[in-house]
Amino acid sequence: MTNVALVARKLAVIEEHLRRLRDRRPAELAAFERDLLVQDAVAMSVLVIIQEAMDIALHIASDEGWELAGTYREAFAVLARHGVVDDALAASLGGAAQLRNRIAHGYASLDAARLWAELPQGVASFSAFAGAIAAFLRRTGAP
Question: How many domains does the chain fold into?
């Protein structure tokens, strides 16, 4: 059975960083491109959100005795196969795993314009993920 307290703590972190992203994203790209501190803060919140979501996916799969994912992308696909999230959301979240790697490991510099443009959809996807996980916890009888 899923460790509800652990998942709830991780969901709270996701929600807090989603709030920070909503608050920090300037209305205009030019302002975002000029402010390296805001770019860093946004990138850090994105990294935290993605990492927490991947951790949740892996914890649920493990705690429920489902197949274990070989990659972070696959972790979200496992949730889709078991009806926790839909396939489209799993695909969107799986793509975010690549962004997490670019931020965490510095594989390439981040494209500020792309990050700014894609942020609203990313926030929506991770908000949907948080809602789906909360619904899963309710379906499994978690308090």
Answer: 1
Phi-psi region of 123 (alpha: psi -120 to 50; beta: other; left: phi over 0): alpha
CATH number at residue 37: 1.20.120.580
Cα separation of the two ends of the chain: 13
Please tell me the distance from the alpha carbon of residue 54 to that of residue 52, in angstroms, as a whole number. 5
Q: How far apart are CA 75 and CA 67, in angstroms?
A: 9
Single pTM value for the model: 0.91
Tokens of 116: 């700014």
**52: CB partners within 8 A, 6+ apart:** 10, 11, 13, 14, 17
Backbone angles phi, psi at 30, to 5 degrees: -60, -40
pLDDT tens sequence across 14-69 = 999 999 999 999 999 999 999 999 999 999 999 999 999 999 999 999 999 999 89
All residues at 6 or more sequence positions from 87 whose CB lies less than 8 Å from its CB, including other chains: 80
> Do the beta carbons of residue 67 and residue 99 sit within 8 Å?
no
